[in-house]
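From the methods appendix. Each design record in this collection lists the tokenized structure first, followed by the designed amino acid sequence. Records were kept in a plain field format so they could be parsed without special tools. The example shown here is representative of the layout used throughout.

RECORD:
FOLD TOKENS (304 positions):
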């Protein structure tokens, strides 16, 4: 197969960049990969494990001659990285990113992009609580969605090529407008993370009362929360600071619902609770039936 890109440059060499580099290699999708990271330690690890074909000391060096540049740093760092690489981008290159928020990145990166470059923002809806160059794995994007948020007038051939690259890495691709992406992700990813962080914080406070029983007897539900709450603090700080409006909107709705459930418990309103849990169970089953829950444990699913 002819490679889709000749030279792909990653700025940032953590979980997502590493997984992309490995998935590209698995699919024989690109001729050459090059990457750089801010810390010398990450660069040394990436070179040692052969995550990309070449590791460079600077982002400027990495992007030179690249026909695809992928920004894989925390959302709050995109601005500085874009400014840094802009003068070194090759004519006709595509620049994309993998940030969890889209409108803020477009606002931060867009102004630095030269006219002769195609800027096509993106977001793979796949991840883990692990970070750094050793965290990546080639299968991360298999059967998951990647959302691209191109602006009006995007070059159709550049969009098609990037779409085929993500498909080659195992993902299904959808196009969305950036504010809609940010609202959808506030519901499906950002607010759930905040709730998990909060629940684990509450349990930690309670630990003083219950000694270590919270950890010792932590059931599956709480364990899932602790996995999510172990995610990278810098990444998630930036997500909430840059997707502020959508997250606050969803949190407002969440607290209203929580108060309604709290009232039902206080009043002994079993009917309300039962009806609510029946509705949410149907949502879970819908996700499974749509084949969107490929990595969750079975938990007796087949018997339901
Ligand atoms: N982890 C996930 O589940 C997940 C999923 C989808 C998208 N994303 C997004 O992908 C991006 C990267 O996330 P990741 O999980 O690969 O992170 P990571 O922590 O594994 O890697 C981040 C990389 O960025 C570099 N970096 C950090 N701060 C920097 C700065 N100020 N300037 C330059 N480089 C810097 C780090 O050295 C590292 O190489 C983030 O924007 C995140 O929102 C993450
Ligand atoms: O499974 C996880 O660890 C994740 O939280 C991954 C997850 C998500 O919420 O689904 C987290 C942030 C992303 O931007 C995309 C994916």
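DESIGN:
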């Amino acid at each position: 197969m002819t490679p889709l890109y000749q030279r792909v440059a990653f700025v940032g060499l953590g979980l997502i960049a590493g997984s992309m580099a490995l998935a590209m290699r698995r699919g024989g999708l690109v001729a050459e990969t090059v990457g750089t990271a801010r810390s010398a330690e990450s660069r040394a690890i990436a070179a040692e494990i052969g995550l990309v074909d070449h590791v460079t000391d600077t982002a400027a060096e990495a992007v030179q001659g690249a026909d695809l540049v992928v920004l894989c740093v925390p959302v709050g760092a995109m601005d500085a990285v874009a400014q840094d690489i802009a003068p070194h981008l090759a004519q006709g290159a595509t620049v994309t990113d993998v940030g969890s928020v889209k409108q803020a990145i477009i606002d931060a990166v867009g102004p630095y992009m030269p006219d002769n470059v195609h800027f096509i923002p993106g977001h793979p809806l796949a991840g883990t609580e692990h970070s750094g160059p050793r965290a990546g794995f080639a299968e991360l994007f298999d059967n998951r969605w990647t959302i691209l948020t191109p602006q009006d007038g995007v070059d159709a051939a550049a969009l098609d090529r990037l779409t085929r690259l993500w498909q080659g890495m195992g993902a299904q691709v959808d196009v969305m407008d950036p504010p809609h992406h940010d609202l959808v992700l506030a519901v499906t990813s950002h607010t759930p993370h905040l709730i998990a962080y909060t629940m684990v914080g509450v349990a930690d406070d309670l630990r003083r009362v219950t000694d270590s029983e919270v950890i010792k007897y932590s059931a599956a539900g709480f364990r899932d929360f602790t996995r999510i709450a172990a995610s990278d603090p810098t990444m998630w700080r930036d997500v909430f600071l840059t997707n502020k409006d959508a997250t606050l909107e969803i949190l407002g709705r969440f607290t209203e619902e929580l108060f309604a459930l709290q009232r039902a418990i206080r009043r002994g309103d079993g009917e309300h609770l039962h009806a609510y849990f029946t509705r949410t169970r149907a949502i879970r089953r819908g996700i499974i039936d749509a084949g969107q829950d490929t990595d969750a444990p079975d938990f007796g699913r087949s018997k339901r």
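APPENDIX NOTE: The chain has two domains: 5-176, 180-289.
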